[in-house]
Amino acid sequence: MTADLSALNGSAKPESEEQVEKKPQHVEEEEEDHEEEGEEEVHEGAGANAKKKKKKKKPKKKKVGLKQTEPPTIGITKLFPDGVYPEGELQEYKDDNAWRTTSEEKRYDERMAMEDAETTYADVRRGAEVHRQVRQYARKMIRPGMTTTEIADLIENGTRALVEGDGIEAGVGFPTGLSLNNCAAHYTPNAGDTTVLQNGDIMKVDIGVHVKGRIVDSAFTLSWNPDYEKLLEAVQAATNTGIREAGIDVRLGELAGYIQETMESYEVEIGGKTYPVKPIENLSGHSIKRYQIHGGGKSICLVKNDDQTKMEEGEYFAIETFGSTGRGRVVESGEVSHYAKAADAPHVPLRLTSAKSLLKTINKNFGTIPFCRRYLDRAGESKYLLALNHLVAQGVVHDYPPLCDARGAMTAQFEHTILLRPTRKEVVSRGEDY
Ligand code: HZT
Ligand code: MN
Ligand code: MN
Fold it and tell me: The pTM is what?
């Protein structure tokens, strides 16, 4: 496997000094008989003086900081009991926007945004920490010979445990994408799928986590064939270009050009044949709104275009790029697994009783969060396909078929969720792995 497995405890990479100070203190299993730091006692100390006389010696109650288990089972709120989750990587705005970081006005805007931070920044960071820990475990466990169903279960069970939810309040943010080889996106197994991961496969692992509708959308690619390493490198570099060049007032068409330039600066040799790396021209990154994976309607294409739309302060984006050794275009192909209730679902009177009933299940369990057939199965639904297809035909639910390049093409993807804060950009899902 080409991935770097050196990630330590699933925390964000400490980039800034502030972050180093905030490094999670609760992931190490430590017996604090001797608590000279007294860090855990903030709640009972009434200021600096109280802290000094740390005399009360606990009667033999050995305090144990919690450490994540394998498989991951401990909720993130238990690992960060103070409710302060690690910030993602911070990047300063560039060029015309360099002033924002120090601007008095923008610092004020940031404090104002922070007011509702308990709700926004904290929620998205909690989801991001779940994402880092789940994917770290996934990278460690996934190996050829496993079925895609086993892989999806491992990731989704981990997510549900760590995010402490399985529905609208918190849970899986969208079906786990496990697209293989020429397929770039939106494959996850349906019930009965016996697909086994092969040694020569290249798998896009796209994981979603949400806390109160704040979806963290981040993906990486795994392969066990050294021939694909350069392809992965090209696509990771292109995604990092997209992240670096993103910013307030940046035009989406220009941003696409930078992504394209990075991707096309690579060529790869696979099985003795050289291929240019092509950005997949009909896939894109996207803005994210609460409970809407593509809310806000902005798309970041992978090929330069004349879209003059600008990124704006406060917006969330999934920066994702896809590279291919094939045509660099995907078509819908294969059995559908992914669905989502339309955010702007028309209120149509449903003739079909089964469709009405299924829609109730969807409303109750997912709202507008994307789901897949496996999630309907575990919600207790069965023989729902006719009803589901009816909801799709009525425009109440959207389907998202697998998206695949030509046969024989190899595709890779990397993706992060970023937040355009007033003073700086936060790569919320960044970790030590990618
Ligand atoms: C749709 C359905 C899902 C959003 C991108 C994506 C996975 O291709 C505008 C631009 C999950 C996500 C989505 F179940 N899609 N990111 N991660 N897929 S998209 C899109 O439909 S809409 C890209
Ligand atoms: Mn994704
Ligand atoms: Mn996405």
Answer: 0.87
Cross-strand pairs, 91: 425
Is 152 near ligand 1, meaning CB less than 6 Å away?
Answer: no
Per residue in 205-233, pLDDT tens? 999 999 999 999 999 999 999 999 999 99
Number of Cβ atoms within 10 Å of the Cβ of 147: 15
In a domain, 25, yes or no: no
In angstroms, the CA 217 to CA 128 distance is: 9
Q: Is residue 85 situated within a structural domain?
A: no
Q: Is 298 in the pocket of ligand 1 (CB under 6 A)?
A: no
206 and 167 both lie in a single domain: yes
Q: How far is the CA of 130 from the centre of ligand 1 (A)?
A: 20
Radius of gyration for the chain, computed over Cα atoms and rounded to the nearest angstrom: 23
The domain total for the chain is 2
In a shared domain, residues 124 and 166: yes
Ligand 1, atom 12, lies closest to the CA of 293
Atom 9 of ligand 1, residue of closest alpha carbon: 286
Residues 324 and 343 in one domain: no
pLDDT (tens digit per residue) in 229-278: 999 999 999 999 999 999 999 999 999 999 999 999 999 999 999 999 99
Structural domain containing residue 273: 93-336+401-427
